[in-house]
Amino acid sequence: MNWAETFRTSWAAVHSHAMRSLLTVLGILIGIAAVIMTVGLGLGTQKDVSEQISSLGSNLLIVSPGSSTDSSGVRGGFGTGATLTTADAAALASSVNAPDIAGVAAEKTTSLSLEANDTNWTTTVTGTTPSWLDVRSRDLIAGEFITDDDEASSAAVTVLGSEAATELFGTTNVVGQSVTIDDRTFEIVGVLASAGSDSSSNLDDVAIVPMSTAATQLIGGVGSNTVSTIYLKAAGDGVLAAAYQEAQGVLLNLHSISDADSADFTISSQDALVDTATSIYRTLTVLLTGIAALSLLVGGIGVMNIMLVSVTERTREIGLRKALGAPPWAIRRQFLVEAAILGLAGGLLGAVLGIGAALALPGVIGSSIVVSPAAVGVSIGVAIAIGLVFGVYPATRAARLAPIDALRSE
Amino acid sequence: MVDTQGTAGLLAQSNQPNQPDQPSQPSQRNPHDTLERYGEPVIELTAARKVYSTGSIEFEALRGVDLEIRQGEYVAIMGPSGSGKSTLMNILGCLDVLTSGHYRLAGHDVDDLDEAELAEIRNKEIGFVFQQFNLLPSLEAWRNVELPLMYARVPGHERRERAERALERVGLGSRLGNKPGELSGGQQQRVAVARALVGEPTMILADEPTGNLDSVSTGDVLALFDELHELGRTIVLITHELEVARRARRIVFVRDGEIQDAPPGHEEGAPLREADPPRPQADASEADASEAEADAPAAGRRQNGAVA
């Protein structure tokens, strides 16, 4: 009996009990679907994170102010303090102090209402320097970015994000128009290309103004030279760690802090972002993998159970086949193939369910799921393997049946 | 009812020579019987013992049986239930092995073979016909018939060809694609006979082949055995029905795990040479000789039956 005949015989056995076979493979089906979803979710998260990273600019380090302590001694969260200044940014830009830092862009950010042609729109107004465009890896779709001259003269010019422009004017073709920010009229000199959104803000809903203009005209407060964030661009992929060390050294020195643990600022990198995303994903993976493993175990036991039933039901057939000359290995192979077919069926149906869910779910849960052909292939392989592993015992029992006892059974 | 027609036609064909006048039949056959048949021994059973142990109880199903059956013989093994004839059938069919003694089948020593080797022997040397037909209900007739060839690794197209020929041989050429459920009992048993024939085994071992059949189908199947015997097949038929056993050329009685002394002319080993030469003459001259011969064991059986 060759393989093709064995497959035909085994398929006939599975097919003749279609409903029972389907119920049997349910466990495997769910397990495989869960595996495909898990891997898909992981890949989707990675994709989301890498998109975020590229939207933020590569080789980026982000320096945030440390926590503030108010008069009653309550310590605020990170980023609430005003410990970073334009002087810090200038020091970091020095190629002597920090040779591995290629670009520095300080930001001073606040939320303000913009007005144009009777339209009001509240957006994030960011005061920054001309280096911002390069450090944040952004592009313009129209006009030009703020210049050193604008910075020096505290010029009333602004570069709008594409979404802010659209909200105010209904179009991004707005270079040369005027917009009113905080009762001051600004000339729109450029529009930023769309960059999507990161974890905390919409990168397209912004209005960029020169740092000096923001400090003197728009954002008052504690000190006109404080900044909310400093973005650093490392000179290359390999020197991100060195750039981190240099930035930390420069800032600790400048702030006269000897112990890095009590620093009044935080430097984070894209790695940190990736780490956060990865840790969330890891929790999810453990959860889903647990479900998948349990489900596959239950599915395997189901296959074993139904194979034992199949062997019992067909004891007479086994006896006959043995009488007609089937050696034990042929009987064993026939039942192993039958179990493998059950596994394969569960795997295929599970893959269909998993892929279907991967297509349908992103719309519901809002994170992308990427179906990896390799994961689908491997899962189906695993499903077949489960069928085989749990089929060994029933198949061996069938192979060991004594022909006379088998023939005599009713 | 088209079915009945077909079967009837077949019956007419196969039964006509037998039915009206039984004694006249052997006279046509016997020349073959002596000349070509009864060649090398197919079955050589020596001091065969089979003991079944159930817990502490031991039951001796066969107590030193000697039996020789030669190529081309048509032998019936008879005995009441519990006589050990089923055990004997299992041993002869290589479905079970002896506790002690020796069994040679077609020149192979069967005693020391493992399961796989026994399977190969069964496949090559034995064609089984069972009381329950034992056809696989999900397979068409020809697929049932090709099963032994599948385990003999005969290529697919040749299998189909041979299965079809075997089915034509048993008169079911028009029923190749029918599943067992669509066939009558007699037809099913003929499919089983075709399956027993298809691998060209050394012997056909039939275990109560007519036990589940009505009288018409019984005649049908037995006529088929007659024809196969005529063609030189070795047939061993296990039965408890005298009417069926009488169709064989030799009857072996099993009782209490031993072979009973056969009536005169039917002793083990010797009978063929002694009994056969007279046959052609007897048949040529007196047609009733073989009927008398067939009746003799029947008488023995009756006596045994009366005792039991």
Automatic annotation (TrEMBL), chain A:
Keywords: Cell membrane, Membrane, Transmembrane, Transmembrane helix. Residues 291-402 form the ABC3 transporter permease C-terminal domain. Belongs to the ABC-4 integral membrane protein family. Residues 21-247 form the MacB-like periplasmic core domain. It is a multi-pass membrane protein. This is ABC transporter permease. The keyword Cell membrane applies. The chain crosses the membrane at residues 21-43, 286-311, 339-365, 371-393. InterPro entries: ABC3_permease_C, MacB_PCD, Macrolide_Exporter_MacB. Pfam families: FtsX, MacB_PCD. The keyword Transmembrane applies. It is found in: Cell membrane.
